[in-house]
Write the structure tokens for this entry.
Amino acid sequence: MDEALVEERAARRHALAKIERLIKQAPSQHIEAAELKAAGIRQFPLSLEGTQHQPSFFEPYRGKLPLPEREDEFLEVEADPDHIMANNRDLEHFLSDHFNGCLYYMWRDSPQIIPPSGQYRQIGDYKFGQLLECITFSWEAVSVTDCSGGNYPHFKAMVLSDAMGDGRLLRGEIMTITDIMAARLRTKSLRPHIIAPMLVYSFMGLCHVRVLEADFDGEHLNIRVSKLYDFTKKNTDAVQLLARYWFGGARGQTKMKFP
């Protein structure tokens, strides 16, 4: 059984590496449907609010959270369509500042309760590849977190891309997913697991974020895609929704089943 598990994890890493090589060959930031199909990627809808198309591997934090304190201050600077990455960095700093405020709030009011996820982690603490491109294409993974309280393979990341958002997946989104998933399947402490689910907060122009949930089933990379959340205007509900999923826990079957 252990040998079968090791072989399956290795096979999935190799398959993810192949997907990443194919996506690297794409001529654009936006990946077309034919390119997704050739790479073995399936795209589905995701809803963080409704009862249909809910995440399969991640759940929201249910506890009380404070309101964002600096939302009006953030909105004082109008998003510039000629500087998408700068807009993205400002938005990421605003959301991360709020997330840090949420952590302080939780620790102050309920110090015995640690949120399932959301504590800041250094990307360099993990054996990932180079999670960015800056010459022909411009995208970068800037923040990551994992789940506490157990060896969960689930992982979350924030990715900034210098692209306008539409319904198509972006190369930076996919390459971040494949690279981190493969690394998680090399991690010895996660050895019982053959699925390493990802939740990605993807920042793009003009000043928007969408959420992706991804898993690799051994044959296909399945990526579920939310709507775009617009932060060119006041959007407190979306800020709180993103905070809840950043701090939320893990669910779903990720271990190998044996007959």
User: Anything to note?
Assistant: The chain is about 35% helix and 20% strand.
